[in-house]
Amino acid sequence: MDRTKILVTGGAGYIGSHAVVELYEAGYQPVIVDNFVNSQESALAGIEKILGVKVPLHRIDCNDLEALRAVFAEEGSLRGVIHFAAHKAVGESISKPLEYYQNNVGSLLTLLQVMREFGVEALVFSSSCTVYGIPDALPVTEQTPTKKANSPYGATKQMCEDILRDVATAPGASLHTILLRYFNPIGAHPSALIGELPLGVPQNLIPFVTQTAAGIREKLTIHGDTYDTPDGTNIRDYVHVVDLAKAHVVAVQRLLEGKAALVETFNVGTGRGNSVLEVVQAFERATGQKLNYVIGPPRAGDVPAIYADVTKSVQELGFRTASSLDEALASAWKWQQTL
């Protein structure tokens, strides 16, 4: 079977590796680009075990114009791109803003230049609910105004969205883009062969939870319990990473079938908000593991509460999440145990 080639930047990363699996299983030929700054080689072995095939890999940085040109030339016939490659930690972006602007905005500009040169016109962009800043009302819809971002990371996603709108709507432009605004991805592939692999101390809640349960970390610190939420801890919309990966396949299909407008935006979440304490309780319930946790000071850049209205994703994209919070947490624990 002749498979349609889709370039996946950051394809060895957490979300990227799951998207590569879902793309292949949906009949596409994913091609991975990754520089392994924020991912690990073991993800490639996991992908290969799940699929039974090696996925083409180009070990380059997306900011490297000549290297990216060489990939497009070598692969030929690329029909679309999913752009995951980016630095992604809110807290780290506050201490390293220059690196975040250079990498996240710079890599998109380089990619767009090469896509134009090679006539590749379909792009799924990995955006984020951080573009909403601190929203005035919940849940957020795609029409919720984007406000000043709470971190340089969020600002890079806003800038990238603005760039994509300008490029796609310029006279004579041929680029079609779907912006997927993720909420909080958690969990792992049911095979437990790929999952979230943080380098060093985890920046995200769930790897810290699972590492604490496994005894790797002494305790989990919950960042603040005085937010204006029912139990005082942050509220987020936790979406199973496999569901999130499937949303990318649906978006690619929509682009390649010519059904997408020049620029479309979709929230990808469950439509439900859960507090950090609720997640801790759900983890204990789903796994039978007791967690040692303490309350610490709030973390810079954290938004008190945000969760999605997913009506547009369901009605227009035809996408709905399938997994519960407990299922996602159980898969994260299964993955931690295989590590």
Q: What does this protein structure show overall?
A:
- The strands form 4 sheets. A 7-stranded parallel beta sheet has the order 3-2-1-4-5-6-11, sandwiched between helices.
- It has a domain at 5-189 and 239-270 and 309-322: NAD(P)-binding Rossmann-like Domain (Rossmann fold, 3-Layer(aba) Sandwich), CATH 3.40.50.
- It starts with a strand and ends with a helix.
- Helix 9 packs across helix 11 (325-338).
- It contains 11 helices and 13 strands.
- By secondary structure, the chain is of the alpha/beta class.
- Helix 1 links the parallel strand 1 and strand 2.
- It has helices at residues 14-25, 42-51, 65-75, 90-95, 97-118, 152-168, 205-213, 241-256, 276-287, 311-317, 325-338, and strands spanning 5-9, 29-33, 57-58, 78-83, 122-128, 176-182, 184-186, 220-223, 235-236, 238-240, 263-268, 274-275, 293-296.
- The chain is globular and about 55 Å long.
- It catalyses: UDP-alpha-D-glucose = UDP-alpha-D-galactose.
- Belongs to the NAD(P)-dependent epimerase/dehydratase family.
Task: Output the helix-strand order.
Answer: EHEHEHEHHEHEEHEEEHEEHEHH
Q: State the total count of DSSP E strands.
A: 13
Unreliable stretches covering 5 or more consecutive residues: none
The CATH superfamily of the domain at 5-189 and 239-270 and 309-322 appears as NAD(P)-binding Rossmann-like Domain
Subunit structure: Homodimer.
Family: Belongs to the NAD(P)-dependent epimerase/dehydratase family.
Domain NAD-dependent epimerase/dehydratase: 6-269
Organism: Hymenobacter persicinus
